[in-house]
Every structure is written in structure tokens, then in C-alpha cells.
Amino acid sequence: MEKQQERRREAEPIIFERDTEETWLRLQEDREKRASLSHVAKDKDVPWKQNSQAYRKRYVQSGPKYRYTMGPIGSMTVSKQMLPPMGKGGKHRHYNEALLYVIEGEGFETHDGIKYPFETGDLVCVPTYCIHQHFNASSNWVSVFYCTPADFFDLLGIQSTEQIEMHPNYQVPETAQIIRGAQGQVIGYKEASGLEIRFGLDENKQILMDSKKATQFQGESKDNYDFYLRTLSDQTKWRQNAIRIIKSKERPWEETRMGRIKYLSHPNISTGLLLFDSFLQEIPPGGVSGKHRHVSEEVHYILEGRGYDIHDGKQWDWDTNDVVFIPVNTVHQHFNADPKKPARFISVQSRLYHYCGHGGFEHMEDAPK
Ligand SMILES: [Fe+2]
Ligand SMILES: [Fe+2]
Predict the structure, then answer these.
(1) Which residue among 25, 99, 194, 336 has its CA within the 20 to 30 Å range from the CA of 138?
(2) 8: pLDDT confidence band, cut at 50, 70 and 90?
(3) Any idea which ligand is nearest the CA of 153?
(4) Which ligand is nearest to the CA of 327?
């Protein structure tokens, strides 16, 4: 006791930190923002827009500026894009993976130069860091619902998009000066403020990724350090061989306690995705799903039908083509309001919660048999 008092007399003056209180206030602000937002994005209220990659509707945008401004969801971006007959999107690459569900149409992907055909109902897996582009191979429009864990990669310090080929309908801002490459192709633009935007592959990053790709671990790992040498090699191989297309017609329906569900991405299914779970759910005419709660956020795209969800006692109506947001820790149940037709939706959940030790479902009520 004496010694402690002695040390205290010699100690530096105490400087108070208010970081904990600042965090409380910021999280309170986040909760209030989430609580103020609708749990349903009505299809008619979300405009189509053109960007460098796609003609799309953006339901949840990434970046700190947009956090909890469009939907009460932070673990993923949420969008829908359309490809015109025989059209294509922009060619690009990003560190984060992407999940795409083909709502309608036939086309193909190119991932690092390899072609992967898709059709209505397929789940397209874009593994982390591959050059990809979406193509329509038919005389009808293709529509795709898609999600990325972009903000998470931002926090990890590896968020980036290299735009290698712009969308055919992309236009630089009217006031901008176009910058052209040696062959006359558009490689960027200069804004009136002097700010330059450059497109294309990041050559330094390419050198870095090529170096990683060329590293191969041979033999057995002998110690805990070798484990990580082997990991690099294993993950490169995994990325090259990852399954890109999950055919929903080849996946079985399961009569679960939550209702009739068909998992397309799940820890027990081998896919090119590591960070998303996804399933199709069908609710019979006038029917109801089970009731449950999970820490993870969940997003639904309504493929068919009309109905409503109850989230923590509050009703949210939905219709075909609407997007439903289920925020963290919400008790939820889905109801088909049509007495004659089934309702169908695709569900997407971030698997990051699971990896962080906050996975699993708390089941409250069974769906009727
Ligand atoms: Fe992408
Ligand atoms: Fe759920």
C-alpha cells in the first residue's frame, strides 16, 4: 500500500480519454439512423442509374458517406443491374467478393479470361480479386440482384476497384476534359477543378498479385510459420479453382422449421464465396414462415408474390421486385398475403458474423407443415 502511494506521487498527471464515450455516442447515432429507415425499398422508389460498371439500382451504397442512409444495413452493398440484349457490363476487379443472383435471363461471366455461362435462378460467385465482366448472350434482358461486402474491405484497408473497361453506356461528366491513351482510347478525365480520374488496371497491384500467385509451397508444413506459407499457396489455388456458378435447379429444397428453403450458398456447400450465405424461400398461398432471430443482417429480394414481414412486432409490406432489409438482432417472420399464389424470395446474409462468433439462429416458432 505504501509503495503504491509512493508511485502515485511520482506518476505523470492523469489525462482523461473520452474515446469510450465518443464510441457510445457514435453507436447511439448509428442506432437512431437505422431505426429511422424503412425496412422495405419499394421497387418504384429506387431509380435506375448508369455508372462505370452497370446500369443499376443501388439499394445500399458503400462508403462512410452512405452508412445507414439508404437502408438499415451495413454489412453489404445491395444492388440490381440489367444487361440489354447481347449487352455487357464494365470489366473490373476488386479485392472484395461478389454474390449475384440471376433473376432472369441467360448470359455468361468472364473471370480472369475464363467463360462461365449462367441462366435464370443461378447464383454467380465472383471470388475475391478476379477480373470479371457480365455478358448477356440472348435477345432478352438479363436482370441480376447482387451484393458485396465492400465496407468491410474498406476497414481492412484493401478496398479498391480497378476499372479495366468502362460500361458501353458510360459517359464522363459533361464539363470534364477527356484523357486519351496512346491508341486514342479513353483512359480517364480531368475535372474543371483540376482533379484527375484515371481508369484501368493498377500495374503495381498486378505485379504484387503476380508475385503472390507465383509463390508455391511444396511439401508438408513443419511448423506454425510454415502454416502461413502454405496458406498463401492454398488460397491462390482455391481462388483459381473456386466454383463460379451454383445452379439452383440442381440444389434440393428442404422442408425446414423456418419453411421451404433451398440453400445456394452455405458453409456446407462448396462455392466461390466465403462471406455470404444465400437461400431461396417459398411461402405457400396464404402461408407463413417460421419465426426467428439472428445477430446477422439479412436482405431479401422478392422474386414473386406479395406479402409482409413482422420485424420486432412491426409490419412491413412487400411486393414483387421490392427489397426487404432485416437489421441486426431482429425477430422476424414472413407472411404471404396472396391466398392463391406462392411467394418467393432470395435471401442474402453476411457470414462475417458467423466467423466473429456471432452466428446461428434463435428459433421461436415453426412454419406450419
Ligand atoms: Fe464487381
Ligand atoms: Fe432470418
Answers:
(1) 99
(2) low
(3) 1
(4) 2
